Fold each of these.
Amino acid sequence: MIQIAPSILSADFSRLGEQVRMVEDAGAEVLHIDVMDGHFVPNLTFGPALVKSLRAHSKMRFDVHLMVEEPELFIADFAAAGADHITFHLETSLHVHRVIQLIKEQGMTVGIALNPATPLDGLKYILEDLDMVLLMTVNPGFGGQKFIPNVIPKIQVLHRHLEHLQSDCQIQVDGGINLETASAAVKAGAHILVAGAAIFAQPDPKLAVEKLRQAAGSMKSE
Ligand code: DX5
Ligand code: ZN
């Protein structure tokens, strides 16, 4: 089943609680929370305090996408704040295996993100430890960018490999996902669609979630 993960990066922060409730009511399973440090990516966003305030208002799975250097510094704080899942970038750590174990020890599921130009090779010796691989379909840092079509074959290769391994590891795509690109990503093998602008920059975010699900050609998973 395809899951929709609205990214609050494009939400109206002045009424964030209301916007989160709206996408939850629309059936979104996952809330994608983009954490940026101004070093790994040229932008700044939010930290554990925001996760803590939202936690009381939502039952969705909180999927924290860390775009930060030294991700190990923040894991315990996000766990305490109520995160269910942490994804960090392969490019940000020299001790990837150790950080994966830290996240699991804190009782969360774990994903590794790869920038568009980063090959799949780095996943080889860690894949069986992962719940998710996030294939970036834009360069991380900003919402509202254009989908990079060259990532499609990368999704296909990873999907085939996971099938071959009979792995439950999920493929998430993030960046430039809209009604057109969603179906291409799903066809290639994506399981979780992150969408920011295509949901929160729309006049009716609730309707946008429903349309995206339709475009992905799937019913809501139970
Ligand atoms: C980009 C973030 C994305 C972003 C996607 O660095 O990781 O999650 O919110 O935004 P859209 O869907 O607008 O491209
Ligand atoms: Zn993201």
Note: The first strand starts at residue 3 and ends at 6.
Amino acid sequence: MNQMIKILVIEDEKNILNFISSVLTSQKYQVISALTGRDGLSQAASQCPDLILLDLGLPDMDGMSIISQIRKWSSIPIIVISARIQEEDKVQALDQGADDYITKPFGNSELLARIRTALRHSSQLQTGATLSSRPYHSGGLTIDFEKHLVTRDGQEIHLTQNEFKIIALLAKNCGKVLLYDRLIEHIWGPYSENDNTILRVNMANIRRKIEPNPAEPVYIFTEIGVGYRMVEED
Ligand code: CA
């Protein structure tokens, strides 16, 4: 099923590269690889991969500059793989145009889920709004974007306009992390103060309304210092 999908892995650590390659080929993805940033950039241009997995710590180039160089000419999904745990690095990578990140060490199911999400969102962009206007379903939660209706286990949940905007944006990008700043800009406009307080207050209200136990969310997860990620659909 994945036979036509080509993934470029830019990673200098051979054991990690081998692990990723075997996971991907077992799922019938076609894998090409580069051990340096320079080789990665040239293969990104010449091989037309459908997705790039990029290690940030490469011997010859900074991964951040690879993201920004690729983004000058391509919107191909890029998932950053990194041992760096600093929140600033995650935010910077997403700001430069990466679609998502995954922190080492990671398991194969996490890796494959991230790849599926990134590929799904890239094909959604191409097919327009029709796909994303179909309702979101996960567990007992349903979000009908057209009717502005949220239900859990069949019970209607009353959200304010802004709460609905937040949850709708997260649901349309489910599986993907959304930066705090992007959410704030989307809901309150480009000139709003980048103050997370108002977003946090709204999120607390949303969780109180939709989560069975707001202290242990199952629908919307916090990526500390980075943003929020909504659970994938069933
Ligand atoms: Ca490395």
Note: The radius of gyration is 19 Å.
